[in-house]
Write a structure and sequence with these properties.
It contains 15 helices and 14 strands. It is of the alpha/beta class. InterPro entries: Glyco_trans_4-like_N.
C-alpha cells in the first residue's frame, strides 16, 4: 500500500509522535510510506526518529505560516501525479485537513477513486474555539475515512448524522522498545537540570507550556505535594512554550524555588522520566497524552490532572485522575509515602500500555480503516 501522511511540522507533540510511530510501523510492514511536512525543523525534535525507509518531503523550505498555507494550492497541483498514485493520504492537524480537502476537489475534477483521504482528529476533548470545531466538522464530512483517538459527545452525534462514513475510535499508540536509558545518561541529565542526588523524590511532567495543557494547575498540584512532603521533593517540568516564564513565576510564588526545574524542550523524554518517582499527566476523561503513555512504558507510575470537571472514575480509567490540583497533590503525596504501592501501580500501568497502546496495534487499526475507506471511495 502507498501511504502519504500530511502534517504541519515534525515538532515535539502528541499528533507528531503518533504520525512518526504510525509511519515507521507501516514501513516496517512493507508499505511505501511518505511524510509531507510544511517545513523542516530541527531533526532532533522528531524528523530523526523516522525510519530510513520513510520518505520525507517539505512543502516550503522556511518556517513561515504565510508560506506554509500560501503554497498549499500550488504544491497540491504540482504533485497531483504523485498524489493520485497513493492509496491513502492521511491528514493530520489543520494543514493536513486543508490538503485533504484540496485532494478531494481535484479527485472529483479528474475522476478516479485514488487517493483515499483519511483524517485523524487529534483534538478530542481539548479546548477548541467554536468556529474551529465547526470547520473541522464540515471538513470531516468530506473524508473517505475519519479517526478519533477517543469518544466524544460531539463526534458521537457527528457519526450518527453520517452513518455511511467509515469512522473509527483508534487509541494513540507508541513504539515500545525494551531498551531503557542508561544509568550514565540519566545521571548526566540529572546533573544538567540541577536535581541533587540526595533529593528524596522527583515528581515530574513533560509537555508544551500552553494554556490547554494546564501548566499552572500542575504547579498548584506540585505546591500541594511540597506542603505535604517537605523540602526533599523536587519537581521537573519539561517542555517549551509561550507560558514558560509565567510557569516559572508561579513556581516562585508557590515557594517551590530551586526545587522546580524547567529545562525547556526535552528531546529524549524517557531519560527525563527515568529520573521521576511519579509522573503527573493531563487526562481528557480516561484518555492520557503521548507523554503519559511514554511514562508508563518507562515503568514510571502516573496519576493525572483531569480536564473534564464532571468526569467520574470508572473501569475505563487506568490512570487515577481528578480535576482539583489539590486532590492531585494529595494523591501524589500518598503514593510518595508508599514505595510498594508506587511499584505495583507502575507494573499495572506498564502492562496496560503494552496490551492496549502499542504502535503495532494502532497501525493494525489504521490499516483496517484504510481498507474501509477504500470501499467508501470506490
Amino acid at each position: 500500500m502507498k501511504i502519504t501522511h500530511i502534517i504541519p511540522a515534525l515538532t515535539k507533540g502528541g499528533a507528531e509522535r503518533v504520525l512518526i510511530d504510525l509511519a515507521n510501523e507501516a514501513a516496517a510492514r512493507g508499505h511505501e510510506v511518505t511524510v509531507v511536512a510544511a517545513c523542516p525543523v530541527d531533526p532532533a525534535e522528531g524528523q530523526a526518529m523516522l525510519h530510513k525507509d520513510v520518505r520525507l518531503e517539505f512543502i516550503a523550505t522556511r518556517r513561515s505560516r504565510f508560506r506554509r498555507y500560501g503554497l498549499l494550492p500550488a504544491w497540491v497541483a504540482r504533485h497531483w501525479h504523485f498524489l493520485r498514485e497513493q492509496d491513502v493520504v492521511h491528514c493530520h492537524l489543520t494543514l493536513g485537513a486543508l490538503v485533504g480537502t484540496a485532494i478531494r476537489i481535484l479527485r472529483r475534477l479528474h475522476g478516479g477513486t485514488k487517493p483515499r483521504v483519511v483524517e485523524t482528529f487529534h483534538g478530542v476533548g481539548m479546548p477548541i474555539k467554536p468556529w474551529q470545531l465547526r470547520l473541522a466538522t464540515a471538513l470531516a464530512s468530506q473524508r473517505d475515512g475519519f479517526a478519533l483517538m477517543a469518544e466524544d459527545a460531539h463526534w458521537t452525534r457527528f457519526a450518527t448524522r453520517h452513518p455511511a462514513l467509515p469512522l473509527a475510535i483508534i487509541p494513540n499508540g507508541i513504539a515500545i522498545g525494551t531498551a531503557m536509558p542508561s544509568d550514565e545518561d540519566v545521571a548526566t541529565y540529572r546533573k544538567e537540570v540541577g536535581i541533587p542526588r540526595d533529593a528524596r523524590a522527583v515528581v515530574g511532567t513533560v509537555g508544551r507550556m500552553l494554556a490547554e495543557r494546564k501548566p499552572l494547575a500542575i504547579i498548584e498540584a506540585f505546591a500541594e505535594i511540597a506542603k505535604r512532603c517537605g523540602d526533599g521533593v523536587h519537581f521537573l517540568m519539561g517542555g517549551s512554550g509561550p507560558m514558560l516564564a509565567e510557569v516559572r513565576a508561579a513556581g516562585d510564588e508557590a515557594g517551590l524555588g530551586h526545587r522546580l526545574h524547567l529545562p525547556g524542550l526535552v528531546i529524549e523524554p524517557r531519560i527525563a522520566m527515568r529520573l521521576m518517582d511519579l509522573y503527573v499527566s493531563i487526562n481528557v476523561g480516561p484518555i492520557t497524552g503521548i507523554a503519559g503513555l511514554e511514562a508508563a512504558a518507562t515503568h514510571v507510575p502516573l496519576i493525572a490532572l483531569q480536564t473534564l470537571p464532571h468526569h467520574r472514575l470508572s473501569d475505563r480509567d487506568w490512570i487515577w485522575s481528578d480535576a482539583s490540583p489539590k486532590r492531585v497533590g494529595e494523591e501524589a503525596a500518598q503514593l510518595l509515602s508508599d514505595p510498594g504501592a508506587r511499584a505495583a501501580l507502575a507494573e499495572r500501568q506498564h502492562a496496560y500500555v503494552l496490551s492496549n497502546h502499542s504502535a503495532a496495534s494502532m497501525a493494525s487499526a489504521y490499516e483496517a480503516l484504510y481498507v474501509r475507506a477504500g470501499a467508501q471511495a470506490g
